[in-house]
């Protein structure tokens, strides 16, 4: 029988990481994502799978615990919300420099600063363009439902280890706090230490006489070597751009106008598509699921089909820059966003579409 | 069938848990459900509200600004959500503490004196279930058997001894709901 439950997004991803065979969670509470740590603690992961759940003394400590765990080849993660993720940027950059896999969750709240605890999407630039220093990218997954919060735990770890990269699940307060049905799958076993040695030869699992020492460091003072390291990183990002793009098309086949939205904004737009179609407007929705790699080709393809695109975000206009880069001037691109923790409403979104493209 | 509901009142009135029981019950009856709360400052006093959607189809937006039904338990929520009821929709409210009663003429309006009735029969703690009963009388979209299952799912096992009084309160609410304005 299927195991279907009603869960909050935050609870779903916590259950998801346990079932994905996660070895360790290190985090510090912050609204609107504290349920992740609460759920892991309440479920007693140590007893259930042997997974460590630890409340660190700060976000900075959390990310560096993740750094250490990942260095040993373990499936480790942290979660936070916007201000906490800002604190973690140094650690994330170090993990990018050392190519260590991990899962990061940002349940975004309004900023800047401490801002508000209400949902927002104003951390897009930070997540997608590199919040820390250096030329690096993370894979960024944008769940639009509680089911995807659950699913992206497993997918996130898979991608992280496949490419030796940091994977960020970029959620928001709405997806984190709302409850929906979730279908759970079976428990994956955690890897044994022997399996880790075999699967991840780069991991610091203890030196044996038959191989050189594994050293995890992002420091190389020789610029020639450092350039090679960077070139190889860029090759990896390029490969990810070619192979890992994910998106969902909703009512796009005959669309004359297109919403582009991710996360909870995409859910609002789904309703707006229904409302628009009921009024006779042929509108569709392209929902990027990976924000890096961005579905550039799909946006470019749709630019040849539609008369205009409207990016809907809970920000002052961040993802819309990637839409514009992909569209490259072929059709007009507009943006509509609510700020500071306010969600746009479906009819508001339709009104913006009409204002920008139809009743001009 | 899609029913889009807002439940709003003071923090502590059981607004979120009423929504949770409704969502769990809907799930047990094999419906698609979503439950989206106001969270944060509301939980520390002030107002609380939750959007619950029950549907036979995949739910598009869990975030809405127009509702089929508004269940209102204080004046601030009345001021905020009376205009958000779809024309022809339903507004159910507890008149206790309401100074400005609803004035719209294009919606169906009912009252449930839940606070008074619950106190009268010694069920003040489950006053919110009187309100839920009133809703289920007007919109019988979930069968009693699934409400029972929903209560079982949403209450922790150590609280299952409270299920009978919750059900009693739901039945009480069904009896006490009064029409104020019913569109023909």
Tell me what you see in this structure.
The complex is a heterodimer of chains A (360) and B (184). In chain A, strands 3-2-4-5-7-6-12 form a seven-stranded mixed sheet, sandwiched between helices. Chain A has a five-stranded mixed sheet with strand order 9-11-10-13-14, sandwiched between helices. Helices cover 43% and strands 19% of the residues of chain A. Chain A folds into two domains: 3-193, Thiamin diphosphate (ThDP)-binding fold, Pyr/PP domains (Rossmann fold), CATH 3.40.50.970; 247-358, Rossmann fold (3-Layer(aba) Sandwich). In chain A, α1 (9-19) packs parallel to α8 and α12 (263-278) crosses α15 (346-358). With 360 residues, chain A is α/β, with parallel strands linked by helices. Chain B is an alpha/beta fold and 184 residues long. Chain B has a single domain, classed as Pyruvate-ferredoxin oxidoreductase, PFOR, domain III (Pyruvate-ferredoxin Oxidoreductase, domain 3), CATH 3.40.920. Chain B is built from six helices and seven strands. A seven-stranded mixed sheet of chain B has the order 2-3-1-4-5-6-7, with helices on both faces. In chain B, α1 (15-28) packs across α5. Chain B starts with a strand and ends with a strand. The mean pLDDT of chain B is 94. The chains are: A alpha/beta (360), B alpha/beta (184). β8 (179-184) of chain A pairs antiparallel with β2 of chain B, so a sheet runs across the interface.
The assigned CATH architecture of chain B is 3-Layer(aba) Sandwich
Strand content of chain B: 25-35%
Please state the overall shape of chain A, judged from the principal axes of the Cα atoms.
globular
CATH class of the largest domain in chain A: Alpha Beta
Major sheet of chain A: size, sense and barrel closure? Answer: 7 strands, mixed
What global shape of chain B is seen? globular
Give the fraction of residues assigned to helices of chain B.
Answer: 25-40%
What is the CATH architecture assignment of the largest domain in chain A? 3-Layer(aba) Sandwich
The CATH topology of chain B: Pyruvate-ferredoxin Oxidoreductase, domain 3
What's the helix-strand series of chain A? EHEHHEHEHHEHEHEHEHHEEHEEHEHEH
Counting H and I runs of at least 4 residues, what is the number of helices of chain A? 15
SS-based class of chain A:
alpha/beta
Q: Give me the Rg of chain A, rounded.
A: 21 Å
**SS elements, strand count of chain B:** 7
In the sheet with the most strands of chain B, the strands line up as 2-3-1-4-5-6-7
CATH topology (fold) name of the largest domain in chain A: Rossmann fold
Q: Which CATH class of chain B is shown? A: Alpha Beta
